[in-house]
Amino acid sequence: MADIAQLKKIMYVEDDPDLRKIVAVSLAAKGGFIVQVCDSGEQALKQVGEFQPDLIIMDVIMEEMDGLETLGELRKLPEAEAIPVFFMTSRVFPKDVENYKKIGADGVIKKPFHPLTLADEVKELWKQI
Asked: Which of 54, 72, 108, 109 could cross-link 88 (Cys pair, CB 3.0–4.6 Å)?
């Protein structure tokens, strides 16, 4: 089990600008996290080394480079290979979740989510790592 005190910095990767704002505010205001927002997998790959997040939360379906491909590329980077990743998606059928975990996701957050409880949900998933 992961120590919740170790979770301070979260990188959030999402191509929808409205969701980026909602999630960033929710995680910062309700969870007290430092949040780095990226609008694409490519941007996440460029910024992960500099930001050094404790956790990456990422949409599965994104333009150009989806979450699955981004996760694969992150695992090739020495500075990101061990960072836990949670997918945030509406595709949460059991076989989908099983597939996400098989390729290396540490948790799945279901969309739609409630902004007031999102930080608590992230903390609960973090404890299960």
From this structure: 109
Q: Is the pLDDT of residue 3 over 80?
A: no
Sheet with 85-89, edge to edge strand ranges: 34-38, 9-13, 55-59, 85-89, 107-110
How far apart are alpha carbons 14 and 5 in whole angstroms? 25
Q: Tokens 């910024």 sit at which residue?
A: 47
Mean pLDDT of 8-28: 97
Q: Is the backbone peptide bond immediately before 94 cis, with ω within 30 degrees of 0? A: no
Question: b vs e for 75-88, b when ≥16 Cβ sit within 10 Å of the residue's Cβ?
Answer: eeeeebeebbbbbb
Q: What is the pLDDT of residue 111?
A: 95
Which CATH entry fits the domain spanning 6-127: 3.40.50.2300, 3.40.50.1970, 3.30.428.10, 3.10.450.50?
3.40.50.2300
108 pairs with which residues across the strands?
Answer: 87
Mean pLDDT of the chain: 95
Instruction: Report which secondary-structure segment, H or E, holds 12.
Output: strand 9-13
